[in-house]
């Protein structure tokens, strides 16, 4: 009898636990976690490289519905999509969801960058970055950005019969960012910084295996060099500010150093300035370069669109004296060009999607998302939704003639809500000025096939080689 009672007492907690697990598991979204550790990661990566990722997710939606579970990069994940899903991801408070970056991203960029912070720290650092990157502040840098673009075209495009667009656009955007964010002008210091930075970025997207000769290992080493160079920059600029030989608006670093609290102390620590400076370069380096590259690709495929952009840009060029820089007011006139850019971002968003982490058990659309699980959102699922954007595969800039006609949280190349990319205005300026000088000075046609793949960002076949020649203006 005692053995029976002891066994019963032992089995009751197990029975209750199993009952609770069974009850809970019924509320977890449908789907499969797949093979341990690997899950569906390889299938998704293959689909992205083959440019069939949207179909891959559509198959999941047909089988499981708009909410389903899977395993990505070693972690249980819930995939959600749609306007309501985007709103949930981008507007949920910090006690419910947190940013979830890959291990390699965190180890290379550090734990004090904006994408790793939450709560008051996230708000403090974001507000500091936005103060520099808001339109009112960026107005004064339009001329400097234009000068970088003109120098780039003279060096890499002028007199050439063929160029490869994507690597050149990466050079251009890294030069703009080095000048604007760090005050690094042409020379060996900037060249060394950019070379280290490029290796660091490769490590961010690598498998986090820290063995010699791996991309991750090189990324870690170059990250240490980049941060050492940035610490030296911070020290130099702090001395310049103290000696009043530098303006607080000289570049991002001096600006962040100049922000003080009520007690006169720096709002951001040196570590936060260094890591968020590096993050700003990562965010603006590839995304802008890819966006401009796909617009150039588009113009070769859509001559009528190119002609309409050219007409708008020629009107602006006629109003400028020879060698005169573009101004903020000129950018405001580029309405059609920006609609073309937004339609390009809709069809080919540089960032395919992203992760959030559930900080607590979350009820969503009738399902339970357990604490600690990842939530995965995907931009093309609303960008290419026929019920939101009719004939989504057709390039149609008129979709953006009236911004109010675009449903909220459906167009998300820069994210949304309080987590929207703080550098989206800088991206707009880079795109508009670059397109202005390109279309008014050059014509081109594709010199390779029209394919592209994602790894993880979209890249045209062979980096988009084009045959280029000077534009004959009437």
From TrEMBL:
<dbReference type="Pfam" id="PF00067">
    <property type="entry name" value="p450"/>
</dbReference>
<comment type="similarity">
    <text>Belongs to the cytochrome P450 family.</text>
</comment>
<keyword id="KW-0408">Iron</keyword>
<dbReference type="GO" id="GO:0005506">
    <property type="term" value="F:iron ion binding"/>
</dbReference>
<keyword id="KW-0812">Transmembrane</keyword>
<dbReference type="InterPro" id="IPR002401">
    <property type="entry name" value="Cyt_P450_E_grp-I"/>
</dbReference>
<feature type="binding site" description="axial binding residue">
    <location>
        <position position="421"/>
    </location>
    <ligand>
        <name>heme</name>
    </ligand>
</feature>
<dbReference type="InterPro" id="IPR036396">
    <property type="entry name" value="Cyt_P450_sf"/>
</dbReference>
<keyword id="KW-0560">Oxidoreductase</keyword>
<keyword id="KW-0349">Heme</keyword>
<dbReference type="GO" id="GO:0016705">
    <property type="term" value="F:oxidoreductase activity, acting on paired donors, with incorporation or reduction of molecular oxygen"/>
</dbReference>
<keyword id="KW-0472">Membrane</keyword>
<keyword id="KW-0479">Metal-binding</keyword>
<dbReference type="InterPro" id="IPR017972">
    <property type="entry name" value="Cyt_P450_CS"/>
</dbReference>
<dbReference type="GO" id="GO:0020037">
    <property type="term" value="F:heme binding"/>
</dbReference>
<feature type="signal peptide">
    <location>
        <begin position="1"/>
        <end position="21"/>
    </location>
</feature>
<keyword id="KW-0503">Monooxygenase</keyword>
<keyword id="KW-0732">Signal</keyword>
<keyword id="KW-1133">Transmembrane helix</keyword>
<protein>
    <submittedName>
        <fullName>Cytochrome P450 family protein</fullName>
    </submittedName>
</protein>
<dbReference type="GO" id="GO:0004497">
    <property type="term" value="F:monooxygenase activity"/>
</dbReference>
<dbReference type="InterPro" id="IPR001128">
    <property type="entry name" value="Cyt_P450"/>
</dbReference>
<dbReference type="GO" id="GO:0016125">
    <property type="term" value="P:sterol metabolic process"/>
</dbReference>
<dbReference type="GO" id="GO:0016020">
    <property type="term" value="C:membrane"/>
</dbReference>
